[in-house]
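Operator note (shift B, R.M.): manual run for Hydroxyacid dehydrogenase requested after the automated queue skipped it. Running by hand, logging everything below so the morning shift can see what happened. Input copied straight from the record, untouched. If output looks odd, do not overwrite the archive copy; leave it for review.
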Amino acid sequence: MSGETRDAILRPTALERLARVADLEPALLVTDFGADDPAQRAALRDAEALFTGWGCPPLDASALSAMPRLRTVVHAAGSVKHHITQDVWDRGITVSTAATANALPVAEYTVAAILFANKNVLESARVYRESRSRVDLLTAFPSIGNYRRTVGIVGASRIGRRVAELLRPFDLRLLAHDPYLDEEGARALGVQRTDLDTLARQSDVVTIHAPELPQTRHLFDAGRLALMRDGATLVNTARGSLVDTDALVKEVATGRLNAVLDHTEPEVLPAGSPLYDLPNVLLTPHIAGSQGGELHRLADAAVDELERYAHGMPFAHAVDPATLHQQA
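Run finished. Output pasted below as returned.
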């Protein structure tokens, strides 16, 4: 992992737990598998497990050739697509990820965004700020609130499922679209399975949790955005490429739609982008995922998995290469 990642997630208590379950050299940090470092080469030659995080370089055939004893990779972050290659699976190496732990803060952010969107928080705050006097709420916002509003969840991913679970206590109608979600799974989640266009038409808030794949690029393009109800809100905590940024700008600039965006395409918008200044857009700098103290949850989850491995138990959060293409 990168030095920045190590300093952020591996607090002393996590290192102490690691030391109890494995032989490790706490001072050794690998950021380049090909580095000309005798101590690193010796450590990799004897390594049975890799404890990885953001910034891990690809584990390709060249890197793996220096690790003949490697049996498992425990990732203290979400997606493993950036460093786990086919060579890992060909070697029979097992992989675990803390993606489930990382899904929790994203789902929490999303639920907050949904509840605030239905209460017209951005618009009411703007009106109050500009008027600096009592606001006639029944006249200005006659239809606000969360009672029996419709929320559309795009993607029954770890995050999408957690969002559905967290929304259960509220009086909301939940729609969901995912090509891999069947009727039984939808009932278990408490959602109504539907096609994507119907979801776009009927939802007061649409929240995106689908993976970034060639077929999901611009999933919400000009045509699908045009299907959304006047006054509806689009929440995107997934990848920015799932939304056509230019098309979204045109819609929100008219005031017809609102947006809560934690990820955009490009990831950092140009300084002149209207999305920074539009009053009906909440733009955040990719904060929905684990940040600050939440990073410690990722380390704890990864150490939990390493403990399971050390005791000969299967991973609780193993990565299945057969379904990896479906995931973020």
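Quick read of the result: The chain has 14 helices and ten strands. The beta strands are 49-52, 72-75, 94-97, 149-154, 172-177, 192-193, 205-208, 233-236, 258-261, 281-283.
Leaving this for review. - R.M.
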